[in-house]
Amino acid sequence: MAQTPATPSEIMTIAAARALRNDDVCFVGIGAPSAACNLARLTHAPGITLIYESGTIDTKPEVLPLSIGDGELCDTALTTVSVPEMFRYWLQGGRITVGFLGGAQIDRFANLNTTVVGDYHHPKVRLPGGGGAPEIATNCGEIFITMAMGKRAFVPELPFITSYGHGTGGTARRDLGVTTKGPTRVITDLCVFEPNPVTRELTVTSLHPGVTADQVRAACGWPVMFADSVGETPPATPQELDVLRALDERTRRAHGADA
After folding, report:
1. What residue numbers bound the domain in which 66 lies?
2. Catalytic residue list
3. Is the CA virtual torsion 65, 71, 74, 76 positive or negative?
């Protein structure tokens, strides 16, 4: 039976997975980042070391975890260390090459909000908070972000900056004494953004198959910048789709049909 075409969400996950390398040590966020990281591990990067915030090192989950406290992570990890050791020795010690994050909102300089929507003291929505993401954003060698596009998520100004990206742009990150690269890619369901080398404003460098520049503009809350030469994201391969869909199916069965 022929495969059904990849969905925008699947293309986003696959494009994000491809950004990871076999020798990366990756701090993994729950949700879409976890799907991308484990797809990479199950395809082109079997040697990748996945670390979750709960202290699990070199974990190889068979199904995607519901949270950082999911027993699947500890059961399949090489070892589990305390959270203080994870953050002080591994993260702040500069031993993690890539942090993979998501967020509720993002601005054009890749700052993330996972705290509130609206006024901080009288919010429209109270979000889950930062957890370890603020530390991950400043201490990993570089940051990949994966988020579905929409004007409620890609906003011109954040009501609250939870995780620091490139601040106000330019040298803002370096001026604060932060020496890591910060966000180097934002992978969405429509395109891939990378920061402009000088201004650090997010710039579209690749459109996913069948996606137009106008679609990206319509889904973004700020005037979108495009690179001088915008590429096309390579389509999903049959292997990538098979592995991702099998992972999703195992996860659904493990956590129930509605997971």
Report:
1. 8-253
2. 53
3. negative
pTM, full prediction: 0.93
pLDDT digits (tens, 9 = 90+) for 185-236: 999 999 999 999 999 999 999 999 999 999 999 999 999 999 999 999 999 9
| Domains in the chain, number | 1
| 35 domain residue, yes or no | yes
184: phi then psi, degrees, rounded to nearest 5: -110, -15
| pLDDT digit string, tens, across residues 19-56 | 999 999 999 988 899 999 999 999 999 999 999 999 99
* CB contact burial 50-67 (16+ within 10 A = b; e otherwise): bbbbbbbbebbbebbbbe
